[in-house]
Design brief:
Distance between the termini: 11 Å
CATH class of the largest domain: Alpha Beta
CATH architecture of the largest domain: Roll
Shape: globular
Strand content: 35-45%
Order of helices and strands: EEHEEEHEEEHEEHHEEEHEEEE
Number of domains: 2
Mean pLDDT: 94
Number of strands: 17
CATH superfamily of the largest domain: Diaminopimelate Epimerase, Chain A, domain 1
Strand order of the largest sheet: 1-2-3-4-6-7-8-16
Low-confidence stretches: none
Helix content: 10-25%
């Protein structure tokens, strides 16, 4: 078994990026995978199944649960595989049936996703405001306040100001219960940059995974671009001292490219499986 730790959606800051563990050669059970993810205590641990296949399969384990899709995990795994194969393109699959195209441009990985149609979800705006500790007047009504998905449903919550976004202190127990009840993988709270039209700032909260806040939430950024039908740059992670930059290119609901810079953490952790 080999484990590589990669930082995804990096900026020029040496502390930037959302870390992902990329695991190959693991032959244990699902319980063993969850146990390893819990031990690593990283935002996501991606297991590459059948690494030598032309289209390898990816499985995403968070410290407390398995997820259908994690884009920063996909970016990390795709980077590892394309560097290993000395290729600038890759197709990988998820256990939920998604086929993901990837391309490598230097140290930047881009992944293609598409809009996912969801069944209607009955949720209450005032309940969300209470969970986030904000007033209804803090919501920016000209931007999408809705559940959206490119493979992992997120509730998008727009705010008027960057200051209000930075000051958020959600009630995480309530958010966990709400997410489980509504089968939504947390909330993505965002605001528009007042000076640069295509730049947004965001914070992602999905405490049921074992991490209260994400440094970068690729699936939510792609879902937001799909709702707005435009290209986006999203700055995220400053509040937890892991600044990230997510680039999204929107071509259609069937073709959304999400990308960012990747850096291998110093050293490579290798481990031989004994069970």
């Amino acid at each position: 078994m080999e484990i590589n730790i990669l930082n995804c959606f990096c900026t020029d800051d040496p502390q930037s990026g959302n870390p992902a563990a990329v695991v190959s050669g693991f032959s244990g059970s699902a319980e063993g995978k969850q146990q390893l993810a819990s031990q690593l205590v990283l935002p996501v641990t991606v297991f590459i199944k059948d690494q030598d296949l032309s289209q390898p399969i990816l499985e995403y384990y968070y410290p407390s649960t398995i997820m259908p899709l994690c884009l920063h995990g996909t970016i990390g795994a795709a980077y590892h595989l394309m560097k290993l194969r000395r290729s600038d393109t890759l197709i990988c699959n998820t256990t939920s049936g998604l086929k993901l195209d990837a391309m490598l441009l230097g140290e930047v990985v881009k992944i293609k996703v598409c809009n996912e149609l969801l069944s209607p979800i009955d949720w209450d705006e005032h309940e969300i405001c209470n969970i986030l500790g904000i007033d209804r007047s803090d919501i920016e009504n000209r931007l999408p306040f809705q559940v959206a998905s490119v493979g992992s449903p997120k509730l998008l919550v727009p705010l008027h100001s960057h200051q209000r976004l930075a000051a958020l202190q959600p009630h995480f127990d309530l958010l966990t219960s709400w997410s489980i009840k509504n089968k939504v993988n947390g909330v993505y709270v965002y605001t528009k940059n007042q000076k640069i039209s295509d730049v947004f700032h965001a914070r992602g909260f999905n405490p049921k995974t074992g991490h209260k806040e994400d440094a970068a939430t690729g699936v939510a950024a792609a879902a937001l671009a799909c709702c707005l039908r435009r290209d986006l740059t999203i700055e995220q992670g400053q509040s937890i001292h892991r600044p990230c930059r997510i680039q999204v290119i929107y071509k259609s609901d069937e073709e959304i490219w999400i990308g960012g810079s990747v850096a291998l953490q110093s050293g490579k952790h290798k481990k031989t499986q004994t069970d």
